[in-house]
Amino acid sequence: MNMRKSWSRSVFAVTGIAALLAGAAGCGNGSSEGTQASEGLPETITIMSIKEMTGPVSFAGENSTKGIDLAVEQINEQGFLGDTKLEVELKDASDSTQEAASLATQAVSDSTYSAILGPGLSSQASAISPIAEKGQIPVVYYQAGSDGVLVGDYTYRVTAPAHSYYHIIGDYLAEKKVETAAVLYTSGNPTLTELGENAVPGVIEDNGVEIKRSDTVANDTQDFTAVTSEIVKADPDAVFLLLLGPQNPRAVSQLKQKGYDGEIIGMSTMGAGNLETAGEDAAGVVWPSNFSARSEVPSTQEFVKAYQEKYGEMPNNYAAEGYDAVWLLARGIKEANSADRTAIQEGIAKVAAEGFDGAQGPLTFEGNDVRVEGVLASWDGSEEVVITLGES
């Protein structure tokens, strides 16, 4: 396989098994290349992947890219698209909205690209989507959970919004006899703000739990001493932490240092190994998640096995989402039997209407937005586990 990794802020390419598949504009027949082919598949179909490979959320971009690489490798080795090879060209937008929009504009204007794999930052996705819709190029996002991302037929998302499965925490609250709660969320992130202000309080109150206080922190907050002191004084039965990944271990540890011994409940940002630095302090923390490598769902375990064989490590939710995004695109391309952008969009729509089994388990779609069953994950002090009510 020809593999090349291309960075938008660099002028070099890297070859190797761990690199993302990228490539030159492949031609299916002498006169048609990339998205210009309207009937039948060309020799190569090229996708632009706009990811956050540097900056504060690079951990998400790096892990989703691993899932993307694995999916592309499988698709090509299995001959899923016949003799056609799928190539993914990686572009680093870091955390820049302007850079992400510029790259999307480049993808629209360059007929080499048949589709885009979008970033996880909602701010970037919201800037890309109008460009993609106007230019009629399909985009599949991971994460990017805020409103304004899915704006038309050409925009899809393979990360279920947390509010669509967060309700599974309800039985846990009942089992633990939680009557009062506090909420702490990162206000500089649109997705976390929506969860902290509306979705999670709604779930809490629907389960008869009183919210004693609600606090916010900034995106760059690392010292939670003051706010955790106030939370501990309120003495809630449970604390809900809706924070950026790297903030979670510090917030958990500082709650424990203040003497808090109640329930700590989070969200999927607690996964991906983010609680490792908290160690035993985080033992017993739970969170609803769209994915866990410990799930016994067959399609999840198939993905986990393949991922471990390739990387020698357990996958996290970002890797699973990147993997599912590529397979959604590949299925859409196969359905279309064309590299034409509109044909691919129509193919994706057909696939979404039927759903499929992916790394995250059975995937269904509500419009262009994925839905999953969700799992209740927990940190046992050294690793992530899946818990079953009655055994937690």
UniProtKB/TrEMBL annotation:
Keywords: Signal. Pfam families: Peripla_BP_6. This is Branched chain amino acid ABC transporter permease. Belongs to the leucine-binding protein family. The keyword Acyltransferase does not apply. The lineage of its organism: Bacteria, Bacillati, Actinomycetota, Actinomycetes, Streptosporangiales. Residues 44-372 form the Leucine-binding protein domain. InterPro entries: BCAA_transport, Leu-bd, Peripla_BP_I. Residues 1-24 form the signal peptide.
